[in-house]
Amino acid sequence: MKHSLSRIQHPGLQAKLMSADEAAALIRHGDNVGMSGFTGAGYPKVVPAALARHIERQNAAGGDPFRIGVWTGASTAPELDGALAKVGGIEMRLPYQSDPTCRQRINAGEMEYIDIHLSHVAQFVWFGFLGKLNVAVVEVAGILPDGRLVPTSSIGNNKTWLDQADRVILEVNHWHPTALEGMHDVYYGTALPPHRKPIPLLHPGDRIGEAYLHVDPSKVVAVVETNASDRVTPFSPPDAVSQRIAEHIIHFLGHEVKQGRLPPELLPLQSGVGNTANAVMAGLNNGPYTGLTAYTEVLQDGMLEMLKSGKMAMASATALSLSPDGIKEFMDNLDFYRQRIVLRPQEISNHPEVIRRLGIIAMNGMIEADIYGHVNSTHLMGTRIMNGIGGSGDFARNAYLSIFMTGSVAKGGKISCIVPMASHVDHTEHDVQVIVTEQGLADLRGLAPRQRARLIIERCAHPDYRDALTDYLERAEAVARSGFGGLHTPHVLPEALAWHERYERAGDMRAG
Amino acid sequence: MKHSLSRIQHPGLQAKLMSADEAAALIRHGDNVGMSGFTGAGYPKVVPAALARHIERQNAAGGDPFRIGVWTGASTAPELDGALAKVGGIEMRLPYQSDPTCRQRINAGEMEYIDIHLSHVAQFVWFGFLGKLNVAVVEVAGILPDGRLVPTSSIGNNKTWLDQADRVILEVNHWHPTALEGMHDVYYGTALPPHRKPIPLLHPGDRIGEAYLHVDPSKVVAVVETNASDRVTPFSPPDAVSQRIAEHIIHFLGHEVKQGRLPPELLPLQSGVGNTANAVMAGLNNGPYTGLTAYTEVLQDGMLEMLKSGKMAMASATALSLSPDGIKEFMDNLDFYRQRIVLRPQEISNHPEVIRRLGIIAMNGMIEADIYGHVNSTHLMGTRIMNGIGGSGDFARNAYLSIFMTGSVAKGGKISCIVPMASHVDHTEHDVQVIVTEQGLADLRGLAPRQRARLIIERCAHPDYRDALTDYLERAEAVARSGFGGLHTPHVLPEALAWHERYERAGDMRAG
To answer: Which residue numbers delimit the Acetyl-CoA hydrolase/transferase N-terminal domain (chains A, B) (predicted)?
Structure first.
C-alpha cells in the first residue's frame, strides 16, 4: 500500500509486511491469542477473518479441530468475534463479548466463556492466572522508527498483550488518522506485588505515561496493512424510556448538589454504553452544569457533544465508540479533541484505586434488579449469558455514587425488570445505591432491605407488576412470621424464581 | 478513680468526668450514635449498658419509645449490642453485628440493619449518605494534655465518629495498658473527592499517620472512667475440619510458590476471624515460610504466635481479638509487639487502593457457595441474617488471591454448604478464585461456569451431597438442551432453591 513508508517507519518491521492470510497462518491450534479491541473500536480488521477462513478450511478437510483462546479488551465486531465463532474456532473467550454468534455458541455449550471484571484481566495475565498468552494481534495507527507504536481508537489490554505474548502480529490501519498521535496515555509504572506503587493520577485529564505502546520488535512475526473502519453504529435518538430515565437521574443529581452532597461541577462521570447513557449526557449537556469531567471506559457521541459545547472540560476513557456522524465530527476536529480526551489502558481506566480516589458518579445499565437491590447485569432468566459484567463492577463498587438503570419492563411488557429475586447476581445489595427506571428513581442509601423493597416497588416497578411484587413481599413476610424464614430479607423460596420460570415456559412473566 | 490524673491529662476534659448514668442521659431518642468497637475489642464498656437501663426505665414508664441508631466499627459485645437490643433500644444498626440478641431482633423484623462493606462506612458518613451522626461514644486508653487520645485495642471508625459527631462521650478504660501508646497509626490525609490523594502506604508495616486520635475538646460532653476487659473468647484448638481446610490451603500456597505465582515469603495475609483462620496461621507457623506479613482487619492468637516465632515480621490490623492467653502474652511483651503490630482506622485497613496495591492473600469464611462459585457470607436459607459481609468484600475483590472456606456440611450433615444456587449472593462468580472445604480445594481461576461446577462438586462437596449436586447439574444441562435455558450457567429454576426450602420445612437438605 502506498502509505507503508510513512506509517511503518521501523525498517525491521517493514521487512515483516505480509498478507493477512500469511499472518493468520502463524497462529496455531491451542494458542491463546490476545486481540486488541474495546467496544467495537481498535480491533484487528483482517487477520481474525483470515484465521477464520483458515480454520474453516482445516475443519472441512477433516483434520483435528482448530480452536484458540480469544482474549480482548472488551467487545469487538462481527469480523472478529462473529467470524471466529461462526467457524467454531473459539475454545475459550474472555473477558467480555456482545456478539450474537458468540452468545449463541456460549449458551449452546459449544464455547467456554469467562466473564471477568475488566480491571482484573491484565493483572491476572501478569500473575499467570489465565495461562500463557501465545500471540498478540494488535491494531495500530503507525510504527515509529524506534519501533514504538501509535495506538488507534482503543487501548484496552494492548499493553499487556504486547508485553506478554511470545509472537506479535501488528495490523497497521490506514483508516485511522495519524493525528491520533498524542491522544493516548500509556502508563508503564505497574508492577507485581509486593513492588506496586500508587498510581499517580489525581484528575481525569492527568497524563501519567507515554503516548505510545512498546513492543520488542524481535517478537513481531508479521505486520499487515489494512484500511478499514471501526464498527460504527448509527446514533439513534433516545426513546421515551431513556429520556425519562435521564430526566430522573438529572433531577437526582441536581438534588444532591442542593443538599451539598455533590459539588456544583459534579464529580467525574462514568457511563455505560447505549442509548440511555447518551440520553443522560444529552440531558446534562442541556443542564446548568459546567466544568464537567468524565472518567469512563467508553466515550460515546453524548460526551463528544459535551466536550464540543464546553460543558465538559476533559474526558478519560479506554475506547471511543462513535456513530458515523460522531466519527466525522471527531476526525474533523482532532486537534480540539486531542486536548480534551485521554485514552488509557483499561487497567487504569477501570482501576479501583483511581475510581475510588476520583469519586466517580457511576451510571450503568442492567438486565434486572430485585426488590432488595441486587442487580443482574449479565444473564437472561438466570442461565443465558447476554454480554458480560464489563467494567460495571469496577465502577459501581468504588464509585462515589453507584446508579443502575433499565426500563421497568422488556419484551413489550412480558418481562419485568424488577423481580422478586435476581436470577443472577453481579452487583450485590452492598454495591447498589440508586436504581432508576422510566417509572422513577429509588435512592437506597441508608435503607435496610425491606425499606429498599418497598421503595423500589413504589418508584421503579412497572404498574403492571407493582401489585404482584407487593403481594410477593407481603407473603414473604408472612412466611417468615410463620416461622419458616427471617424478616431481614424475606422470600417465598419456592416462588423466588417463579417469574423467570414462567417466562421460560409461557413467554410472559405475568400470571396467565 | 485513682488513675484519673495520669490517664486524663487535659484539665478541661478532667472537668467533664461523670458517671456512666450521667453520660448516658446525654443521649437522646432518635440520635445516631457512633460507638467504638471492632470484633469485641475497644468498645465502650459502661455507657451503652447505662443507656440500656435508661431506655428500659423510660419504656417501662410508658413514655414514647426510646430508640437510637447504633453505628460501630464492626461487632461489639453483649454489654453493648446485647444490652441495647434486649431493651429494644436500637432502631437501625450498621455496618456489622454478630450478637445473638441483635440477630434475633433483626430477623424478627423488630430492628433495621444495613450490612455495609467495612471500607465504605466512614466515607458514606463523610459524604452525608447515612444522615447526621449525633453522638460518638469512644473508648480510649488515655487523654494527653493537649486533648489527643490514645486509642485502645481497636480503631475501627473512631476517627470518623470523633470528627463527625456533635457530642462526644469518652470512656477512659484503665484495663488497657498505657504502653499501647505508639502502636496505632491514624491517617489524617483523607479528603472528599475531588481532593483525594494517593494513600502513601507501600508495605504492611508502613506508618503514614499519627499515634493519636484527635477530638475537639469543646465537643466532649462527658468523660467516664472504666476498668473492664474486652470481650475475650478462650482459644479452642482447631477441630479436624479446620485442620483439613488449613492443610489444603497451605498445600495450595506451596504449589503457587513452586509455580512462581507467589514469592517465597508469600504476600501479605488477610484472614477472617475464627478457628479455621487460626488453624491456617498455625499451619503457616509450622511451615517453611519466613518474613511473612499480614494486612488484615483483625489480629488473632494465630498471628500473635507467628510474630512471636519470628515467622511473621509485621502485622497491620484495625483490631486485636485475642484469647485470655493471647492477651497475657501480648501485655507481657508489649514492647516486642509494639514494634511489629500497627493498628489503623478501618478505612485504611480495608481500603481497596491499599489492598490492591499490596496484593493480599485473602482468606475468608463463608456460609455457602454454589456450584458456579457464588458465595453467600451473610444469610441462612436466604432470609435470616447471620452476621454481615464485614470486610470480606473489600479484601476478596481487591486481593491477589481470593480464597473462601467452610466445612462442606453444617448441622451434623443436614446442611450442605455447597448448593445448586446460593440463597443470597455476597461475592459473585467474578470475585471468587478458590473454594476450600475439608474435602478439598477448587482452584477456579481460568475456568468457565460449568467447568467450575464440576470441580467444586468433585473437590469441595461432602460425599453425601455429591451425587445430588451432579444430578442437579446434569438435569440443568438437559433443561437447557431442551430449549428452556442456556448452557452458560444452567439451572433447574424451580429446584434452584429447593434444598433451602427443604431445610426450612423438614430440617434437612437431604431428600427424605
So the answer is: 15-225
Q: How many of the other CB atoms lie within 10 Å of CB of A116?
A: 21
Per-residue model confidence as pLDDT tens digits over B431-440: 999 999 999 9
In contact, A393 and A427? CB cutoff 8 Å: yes
Residue type, A490: P
Percent pLDDT > 90 in chain A is 93
Amino acid at A40: G
> What span, in angstroms and rounded, lies between the C-alpha atoms of A128 and A508?
45
User: Is A91 considered catalytic here?
Assistant: no
Residue tagged active-site, from A297, A305, A347, A368: A297
* Alpha-carbon span A446 to A191, nearest angstrom: 38
Give tens-digit pLDDT for A358-379: 999 999 999 999 999 999 999 9
Instruction: Report how far residue A77's alpha carbon sits from residue A89's, in angstroms, rounded to the nearest whole number.
Output: 15
What global pTM score does this model have? Answer: 0.98
Question: Is the confidence at residue A3, as pLDDT, over 70?
Answer: no
A505 touches chain B (CB under 8 A): yes
Helix (H) or strand (E) run with residue B232 in it: none
Task: State how far the Cα of A155 lies from the Cα of A184, in Å rounded to an integer.
Answer: 8
Helix/strand/coil for A146:
coil
Eight-class DSSP state of B237 = P
A and B: number of Cβ contacts within 8 A: 255
Do residues B452 and B444 lie in contact, with contact meaning Cβ atoms separated by under 8 Å? yes
Q: How far is CA B109 from the centre of its chain?
A: 23
For chain A positions 209-268, those within 8 Å of chain B (CB to CB) are 259-261, 263, 267-268
Q: Which amino acid is at A478?
A: A
Which residues make beta-bridge pairs with A34?
Answer: A71, A136
Q: What is the per-residue pLDDT across A391-448, written as a single tens digit (0 to 9) for each?
A: 999 999 999 999 999 999 999 999 999 999 999 999 999 999 999 999 999 999 999 9
pLDDT band of residue B512 (cuts 50, 70, 90) is: low
pLDDT value at residue A38: 97
Instruction: Tell me whether residues B428 and A425 touch, CB distance under 8 A.
Output: yes
Go through B126-142 and write b for each residue having 16 or more CB atoms within 10 A of its CB, e for each that does not: bbbbbeebbbbbbbbbb
Percentage of chain B modeled with pLDDT above 70: 99
Reported for A499-504, long-range contacts at CB under 8 A and 24+ positions apart, including other chains, are A499/A416, A499/A419, A499/A420, A500/A381, A500/A382, A500/A419, A500/A423, A500/B493, A501/B493, A501/B494, A503/A381, A503/A414, A503/A415, A504/A381, A504/B484, A504/B485, A504/B493
Closest to A211 measured CA to CA, from A341, A331, A47 = A341
Residue closest to B199 by CA, chosen among B16, B384, B345, B407: B345
B298, β-bridge pairs: B319
The mean pLDDT of chain B is 96
What SS3 string covers B259-318? CCCCCCCCCCEEECCCHHHHHHHHHHHCCCCCCEEEECCEECHHHHHHHHHCCEEEEEEC
CA-CA distance, B134 to B376, in Å (whole number)?
Answer: 34
**CB–CB of B486 and A424 under 8 A?**
no
Asked if A105 and A81 count as a contact pair (C-beta separation under 8 A), the reply is: no
- A281 closest CA partner among A308, A251, A302: A302
ipTM above 0.90, yes or no: yes
B353/A358 CB distance under 8 A = no
Name the active-site residue from B225, B297, B329, B368: B297
Give CA separation, B451 vs A63, A307, B307, B396, in Å.
Answer: 26, 46, 40, 21
